[in-house]
Design a protein that fits this description.
- The complex is a heterodimer.
- Chain A has 20 helices and eight strands.
- By secondary structure, chain A is α+β, with helices and mostly antiparallel strands.
- Chain A has an eight-stranded antiparallel beta sheet.
- Chain B is mostly helical.
- In chain B, α1 packs antiparallel against α2 and α2 runs antiparallel to α3.
- Classes of the chains: A alpha+beta, B mainly alpha.
- At the A-B interface, α1, α5, α8, α10 and α11 of A face α1 and α2 of B.
Chain lengths: ~550, ~90
């Protein structure tokens, strides 16, 4: 590799990185949280925490659906599992409302012990961050997705050019020089990048694949003569039964069918679907969770038994291993299901979360490095110019500001009145107001003081979450209920860890940087001057 | 790199790179000897790699002219392959 090639790659890496870096930081942080989006939603609805699967839960669920929608086209019962405590009941109404009707039908939550329908506080929960990480918020969905795809493409280019820039990639990985300003940020950036390099490549590349029909549909159009629907039905056909409802009829009890299915597959039934319930052509579909597998078909991949509703006769058994999947789709499925960690058990999920944190840290340290390098290149009597200050302020808003806004969103969930009108929108407003305030603050104080203030505020807010929880819920850290469901206690613990990390950062930032004179005396080479602050400010 | 060269290379990377990827997706979709849904997905997966590869090339080539040439030549080739593979 010649030197000029590496230099041009360093240039490409620096500028593609900066151009969409702020967006990428936000995508990475919110996307990382999305590994636990169901757990976050669970935490944000404390009304359903006290609900546990009982032997009679399925009968209660059937009774609830019978009372609510006896003539629905289909019922869908999701039983509590590792990631949810309540029973989720969905149904497709017999008559689809004109427009405005939700494609996924109606939905309600049921307490698994009592069979009562529960109406938890209105919140978007973890889905807000999940959606934000690929379509942002409040701007046209199509343009937002295109913008995210553009950022993803930039990231893929930044990854490849970054690898080329670092000829000594493994040596760099083992180099860490803490407390040395720019060098430390560079080392941290390298270490987090190399540590999770396969993950970074996978997450960006699969991000593009997930939006292939939006950004790269030309191959589909070429092979299917502009009939994209034909492609979708060939590839993603869900094989749903669209039989017309028959005449009213009795259904057999579901209990024995569940026992039969659980014996057959050796696993608990997690999902029960009924098409044409209460009709003579009713079908009962029972699914158990499939074994972790990343390359088979994504949809309909669970081991399933289908029964005739009025006789209880077994009419179909589906085992995913029998589904032939071609090599091309195996690769596609590998990338996309790893992106979404669909197959993951809790431990793997935590591992992915940590990789996501490493990715966030990589983008964050890259942005800090950008400012730090240019600050240290300044002559001693020189002030940072307007552009450098602005980058520093935007860094602050995108890093500490986002962490502040997320914490505020969780606090709003606990502190806003439970019956407030349009409550879920208010939570989101709190999120954006706090983020905006941090942006204004960052642009007004693009210096060490600004960073100290924002880190301090963020640490306090994250610490406040488990504390406020004690006064506002019956499932805080000092109750056995929180520990019954690992997700609930873990949430508070992660808040405490983030608060502690913030406190540590604050401690490092607070230590007075060496005065300029001593700095010059100690380190003859300016580039190696020790300084803790991510951005310069004359003391 | 002069501003003009940077602008030209950026255009080559963005427009040329995307065009190269799109043509690869189209050409592979109609020429790969396998079920068409599989040919399509392989084409798309190759396309994204080519897009990023083209961007790398655009900024590492000796001159902006060379950057464009290195992207347009394979694009023409893939365009021809696509036309050749179209069902008659």
């Amino acid at each position: 590799m010649n030197k000029s090639f590496r230099q041009s790659m360093a240039w490409l890496h620096t500028w593609t990185g900066l151009l969409l870096g702020w967006l990428l930081v936000a995508i990475f942080i919110t996307g990382t949280s999305a590994y636990f989006r169901e757990e976050i939603t669970l935490w944000m609805q404390p009304e359903v925490h006290d609900s546990t699967l009982q032997p009679g839960t399925v009968e209660l669920a059937m009774a609830a659906l019978n009372a609510k929608a006896p003539d629905a086209k289909s019922w869908d019962i999701n039983l509590p599992g590792a990631r949810q405590t309540a029973v989720e009941l969905r149904w497709q109404p017999a008559k689809q409302p004109e427009n405005g009707g939700r494609r996924r039908g109606e939905q309600m939550l049921m307490d698994a012990d009592s069979g009562e329908v529960v109406a938890p506080r209105a919140t978007r929960g973890g889905n807000f961050f999940y959606r934000f990480h690929f379509e942002l918020y409040g701007i046209d969905r199509l343009w937002a997705r295109l913008l995210v795809c553009l950022a993803t493409m930039f990231m893929l280019i930044a990854i490849i050019s970054g690898v080329i820039t670092h000829k000594k990639i493994f040596k760099d990985f083992f180099t860490f020089r803490p407390g040395k300003g720019q060098r430390s940020w560079l080392d941290a950036h390298n270490a987090t990048a190399v540590l999770a390099l396969p993950y970074h490549f996978m997450i960006t590349y699969s991000g593009l694949l997930l939006f292939m029909t939006l950004i790269m549909p030309w191959g589909i159009d070429a092979a299917y003569e502009n009939d994209r629907r034909a492609f979708f039905s060939e590839v993603f056909s869900r094989g749903e039964d669209s039989a017309q409802p028959g005449s009213p009829g009795q259904m057999v009890a579901v209990g024995p069918l569940i026992e039969q299915t659980e014996t057959r597959f050796g696993k608990p039934v997690e999902r029960i679907q009924l098409t044409n319930p209460n009709r003579d052509n009713a079908q009962i579909t029972l699914r158990v969770n499939r074994d972790p597998a990343v390359t088979d078909r994504q949809r309909g991949g669970d081991p399933t038994q289908v029964f005739q509703g009025n006789t209880g006769e077994l009419i179909d058994t589906r085992i995913p291993a029998n589904d032939p999947v071609s090599p091309g789709w195996r690769i596609y499925n590998f990338f996309t299901s790893v992106h979404m960690a669909r197959f993951a058990d809790p431990l793997t999920r935590w591992l992915f979360f940590l990789f996501g944190v490493a990715g966030s840290a990589m983008t964050v340290t890259g942005m800090l490095l950008w400012v730090s390098k240019r600050t240290q290149q300044l002559r001693r009597d020189q002030q940072p110019d307007r552009a450098l200050k602005m980058v520093n302020g935007l860094n602050m808003a995108s890093i500490t500001g986002l962490m502040l806004a997320i914490a505020a969103y969780f606090l709003a969930n606990r502190l806003l009145p439970v019956t407030l009108a349009a409550r879920e929108d208010r939570e989101i407003q709190v999120f954006f107001i706090v983020w905006l305030v941090s942006l204004v603050h960052g642009l007004l104080r693009p210096n060490r003081h600004g960073w100290i203030e924002q880190v301090a505020a963020a640490s306090l807010l994250w610490l406040a979450i488990p504390a406020v929880n004690i006064f506002t819920t019956a499932s805080h850290l000092f109750t056995p209920l929180a520990w019954q469901h690992a997700a609930i206690a873990s949430f508070d613990l992660v808040c405490l860890i983030l608060a502690a990390l913030g406190g540590y950062t604050l401690w490092r930032l607070q230590r007075k940087p060496l005065p300029a004179k001593a700095r010059g005396a100690r380190a003859p080479r300016r580039a190696n001057t020790a300084s803790e602050q991510p951005a310069g400010e004359s003391p | 790199m002069s501003p003009l060269s940077i602008t030209s290379r950026t255009l080559a990377a963005a427009l040329g790179g995307y065009g190269l990827g799109a043509l690869a997706a189209m050409a592979l979709a109609v020429t790969l000897p396998m079920a068409r849904d599989q040919a399509v997905i392989i084409g798309i997966m190759v396309a994204f790699l080519l897009c990023s590869g083209a961007a790398i090339w655009a900024f590492s080539a000796r001159s902006a002219w060379q950057a464009w040439a290195g992207i347009l030549a394979p694009s023409l080739l893939l365009g021809g392959l696509y036309l050749w593979g179209l069902p008659a």
